[in-house]
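User: Can you fold this complex?
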Amino acid sequence: MNCELVAAESAARMALDRRSFLMCALASSAALGAGEFTASAAAIPLASGAEAQNNAQFTYEAKFYEKLANRKIKCKLCPRECIVGDKERGYCGVRENHGGVYYTLVHSRVCAAHIDPIEKKPLFHYLPGTTAFSIATAGCNVNCKFCQNWDISQSRPEEIPAQYISPHQAADIARQYNCPTIAYTYSEPVVFAEYLMDTADAAHEAGVRSIVVSNGYMQHDSLEQAYGKMDAVKIDLKAYTESYYAKVVTGQLKPVLDSLVTLRKMGKWTEIVYLVVPTLNDDDEGFRGLAAWIKTNLGTDVPLHFTQFHPEYLLKNLPITPVATLELAKAIADAEGLHYVYIGNVPGHPAQNTYCPQCRKMLVERVGFTASQMLIRKDSTCPYCRHNIPGIWHA
Amino acid sequence: MRDLRNRSRRNFLARCITGAVALGATGLRATGEAQAAAAKSRVVVARDPLLRGSGSTIDSRRLETLLDRAMQSLFSLPATHENSIAAWRRIAGAGDTVSLKVNTLGGRGIATSVELVEAVCERLQQAGVAARNIIVWDRDSEEMERAGFRIAVGGDRVQCYGTDRAGYEDDLSAWGSVGSRFSKILTRASNVLINLPVLKDHDGAGVTISLKNMYGTIHNPNKYHPNGCDPFVADLNMLPEIRSRMKLVICDATTAMYEGGPGFKPEHSWKLNGLLVAQDAVALDFTGWQMIERKRAEMGLKTLEAEQRAPRYIATAADSEHRLGHCDAARIAVFEV
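Assistant: Here's the predicted assembly.
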């Protein structure tokens, strides 16, 4: 993929000013065609080193925890339920117990900031052709062996350069650069839930929407409260087996499935990404089971993206996912009756486009991370057969 | 160099393999792994009831004497002034850069004592190591200052600072369940590592002594606390960055904790006035664990096993996959001096 070409097209289509264009270009060049990828150096200038950070300004009492005896706490943010002693941190590395009070160390502590096409998240049924001001802090509540952003997700906040961006500043930047959306992404937004919630509130006041790219590994209450403020959600469903979650993700499958059902009940627009890793989660039965579960529990209209794995982090020994495997996965999910099954990280593949499930005509054409054609009507119907196409298509 | 003639073929091979793994280590000096291959590992428990006199402050001179006694015993050397230095020459000498990994997480109450570090630095210099080639370090400079260390960077003096000033390697090192970036202090500023942990209880891991002190050398220790840190502690210690450098463990047990760790809980600490010294970190941790269990029993507490937090990682470090040392009492020779 030619990243600069994508950025140039994007700039021309959306009539961005020069500075915005440069930001998009930088963001896209960092992406290198690898889906949700970022470097810690961002288009927005960050502090030159971790030592430049003032820890106090990022430290807020956490929302989701309970106090225990002997100055310990139990974190209630994710299913891990870390019991954390005084002066210790939870598994995520960004929450610390000080004398029996639990604090987040990453409120407004942004270590990556880019303006990205929404297609890069990927969200294909949400405001196609628009951009999102995309931000992240350090930390993650799992440790996927294939993580593309491990340098920020698996680091403690003081180890990587970051910049103070308050919730209101984030909203202002999004407006300034004509981004209708703020995306919480790159690392794992679960671990900066408080910042995400405050920023979503500030953004909504400013007329800016919020979306989150997450692993969905959360407790029910934190999910409802934090992601209840989102306008759309993308969940990385890493596999359809508990053993994969245990060995490759260091997490659990069931809470993620529960989160998807909860999001469905909450009425949140949700899309699912399944990264297909050769030899580890690429068996036919897994694809079939996944598709059947989605059909039964979430319905046939939930977009499902099968994306291509690239060797990274602790799985450098595996090859890139063959396109044929992705096509097989799509064929199985299609056969199970899912209406919107996409193939991702394969530039130019026709399964990146959106087709009407009734008349089969192409409705949204995508080239790389750019929506080059969008035909869906204002009332979210197909212009050819008037079939309803679920999603959030127009601002 | 030790005489290999009386060694079995298997021990000889084990030593060769160890040497192959060591890649860049100082080679012929004794290591914990060499001891592990031998019949028994030596662990010295040195104590001085009068270490603090009648007050609470450690007497530096007595601590230095205690350290000498421990080192001479470790290498079975007669107690002479010359041998107090000769013992250190087994560890490092001119041309070596030596890093002293202290433990300052618990603050001044339960940290490696400055007096001990000063005594080690003194002996290393007498053994020929240049002051500027000695680095006292932990993960964070502020934590070190809170524990009483004075940050010193540059010049011809002993260096003292945290990884926050040096940073971590960009590349990952991986073994088993562990994938981490090492402190550049370890990888770039030292070819000899002396591990200076404290002796304390840990609410998750059971105990934290020398093997777990290596969590302070990597960027992501928070990822390795599930399941009582097992097998993460053992896997981390398998990495060549540690394995090839660690020549000696001196556990500061002047103050120890039998409950409530890793943060300092004065009500659960005791003045042990001792040092544990070994080249086999596994054997030392096993010995320290037993000392904590004895204190727990004395205080009427349950065993760590009964509390379902026995430090299983110690046995893992000794298993056939890791072979980092001995955790079988029959293969550990404890010398109380």
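Chain A is about 30% helix and 20% strand. Chain A touches chain B at residues 50-51, 70-72, 83, 85-93, 143, 145, 150, 154-156, 158-159, 250, 313-314 (CB under 8 Å).
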